Amino acid sequence: MLIDRRFVIAAPLALLATRAAGGPRRANWALIPGQTEVKFTYSLNGAPVTGRMAALSADLEINLDRLPQSSVEVVLDAAHADAGMPFARSAMLSEAVLDAARNPTITFVSTRVAGAPSAADVDGDLTMRGTTRPVTFGGRVNSAAGVDDLSQIVVTLNGGISRANFGSTGYADLVGDRVDFTVRARLRRV
User: What is residue 78's three-state secondary structure?
Assistant: First the structure.
């Protein structure tokens, strides 16, 4: 199974940044509406194409004293994803690719969080097209408001998956198997 270990969903990085800045030992984080961007890049006839998908929700609990007790749950809006090319959108949402009519969301639920102040690994279950597979993600975090102000953070995430591992095999003669992600999420402490 092809899974890039550097793709992240926000919580572990927020956790590490908060600890490094001497912030609260435990905090919950919420997405700031309209300030999260999920881009995905795939190969169409050998050329890279970048699309976008909205994050519907994120439930992030960060426990700085017991990092393994931290948790992440993120839901993405597959049904309204933008394929990056107008003619490709209906094919992407079709039963052969995302099957968005029956599976309108993509979810990630963490099963383990570990790491260090500069980076973290989050193991979890990714569900796409009704298929759940274990994945590991990683990434980095920055303060959105200033070095010592962690009331808002920006998490930048990168990585990739094999779409075939989730049953998304449609248009294999035109579309490559690997899908790379870039996620930029702005969160506020709640």
Answer: helix
Answer yes or no: is pLDDT of 124 > 80.
yes
pTM above 0.85, yes or no: no
* 5 pLDDT tier (thresholds 50, 70, 90): very low
Q: How far apart are CA 126 and CA 122, in angstroms?
A: 11
Contact 143, 9 (CB under 8 A): no
Computed on alpha carbons and rounded to an integer, the radius of gyration of the chain in Å comes to 17
125 φ/ψ angles, rounded to the nearest 5 degrees: -110, 125
**CA–CA separation, 171 vs 42, rounded Å?**
12
Nearest Cα to 66, choosing from 109, 110, 22, 112? 112
Query: Which token pair is 15?
Result: 């956790």
pLDDT score at 171:
96
Q: Are 14 and 113 in contact (CB under 8 A)?
A: no
Tokens for 75, please give them: 């839901």
Beta-carbon count within 10 A of 120 CB: 25
CB 130 within 8 A of CB 83: no
Q: What is the pLDDT of residues 56-98, one digit of tens each?
A: 887 777 655 666 777 778 889 999 999 999 889 999 999 999 9
**Which tokens belong to 184?**
């930029």
CA distance linking residue 167 with residue 97, whole number of Å: 8
